Amino acid sequence: MEILAFGVQSDEKPLIEKAFAGQHDVRCLDVFLTEDTAPIAAGYEVISTSVNADLGGSVLQTLAAGGTQMIAQRSTGFNNIDLDVAERLALQVARVSYYSPHSVAEFAWTLAMAVNRRIVRAVSRTRDFDFRLDGLLGRDMHGRTAGVVGTGKIGEAFARIAHGFGMNLLGWDIAENPACTALGMTYVEKERLFTEADLISLHVPLLPATHHIIGEDALSAMKDDAILVNSSRGGLVDSTALVAALRAGRFTGVGLDVYEAEAGLFYVDKSMEGIDDDTLARLVTFPNVIVTSHQAYYTRDAVGQIIDATVRNVADYLAGRRSENVLVPAPVAAP
């Protein structure tokens, strides 16, 4: 069988081909799955998609009409998939429920320290042989308070690093993680966390309850010199409200690896044409903001685990097995 994989980065292609070698052929495309590209999947029983794929109702209908029966998404998040429509169309959908949490946690800390110590500005200066220190004053993390919003595997990994820095830990989640409390984390209401934390890092999934969890009220509650990092999902942050806060001179720094309107922008070269997203264009102009293109997961370790899980998901589908990765199971044949 030949599998069609959408949104494959150049670094991923040899890893995907090697993982499927001897089992299935795989056709890797660098284009993302959208309404325009969905017809390419005609005749492919199994396709694989990336986190920025459009798997809304109309795309799913096109896939089903073309003969697709199984979608293997190469990510943990699935807020881009209309699961109800997939079930109605008898499309099996699977994701990757777990990969290295250290990849995202370490990158979140990379963003935090980069904005704290003004790394981007410093590198830009030294490339012009400007070795002044003016405007590069950072601060110690030791002894300050880290607020971890979402204390699952990634949040726990982030908290462990914060503990290594000697920080006080505040956490918010629907359930406490014993590993985090063992580190000395105090669970509090999110409003208290926003008020007291010097560094706030987001590690919750994007759900209706968490959409714009960082909105005008939360931003207003934060310290003027706080650091905010989002390496989870763009929709957690109200970008318009964030721009307003930054324009008011708030925050030591903001690190964003995700953006709520990133579909169609991230993973694409727009350098020769620019963008028409005024909010994102404004965000990247602030000297205390770093925006990266949803790359926190992008380590050889994590990508390898994602691909291995995708291979298993396809094998489970063909064997009629169901794992914890299945979001929409294959329909049960009538007796």
UniProtKB/TrEMBL annotation:
Family matches, as PROSITE patterns: D_2_HYDROXYACID_DH_1, D_2_HYDROXYACID_DH_3
UniProt keyword Transport, yes or no: no
InterPro entries assigned to the protein according to its UniProt record, in alphabetical order: D-isomer_2_OHA_DH_cat_dom (IPR006139), D-isomer_DH_CS (IPR029753), D-isomer_DH_CS1 (IPR029752), D-isomer_DH_NAD-bd (IPR006140), D-LDH-like (IPR058205), NAD(P)-bd_dom_sf (IPR036291)
Record-annotated membrane-spanning stretches: none
Domain of life of the native organism: Bacteria
Keywords: NAD, Oxidoreductase
Domain annotation D-isomer specific 2-hydroxyacid dehydrogenase NAD-binding: ranges: 110-296
Gene3D superfamilies attached to this UniProt entry: NAD(P)-binding Rossmann-like Domain (3.40.50.720)
Keyword Oxidoreductase: yes
One Gene Ontology term of the molecular function aspect: D-lactate dehydrogenase (NAD+) activity
Domain D-isomer specific 2-hydroxyacid dehydrogenase catalytic positions: 8-327
Top EC group: oxidoreductase
Enzyme Commission (EC) number: 1.1.1.28
Family to which this protein belongs: Belongs to the D-isomer specific 2-hydroxyacid dehydrogenase family.
Protein name: D-lactate dehydrogenase
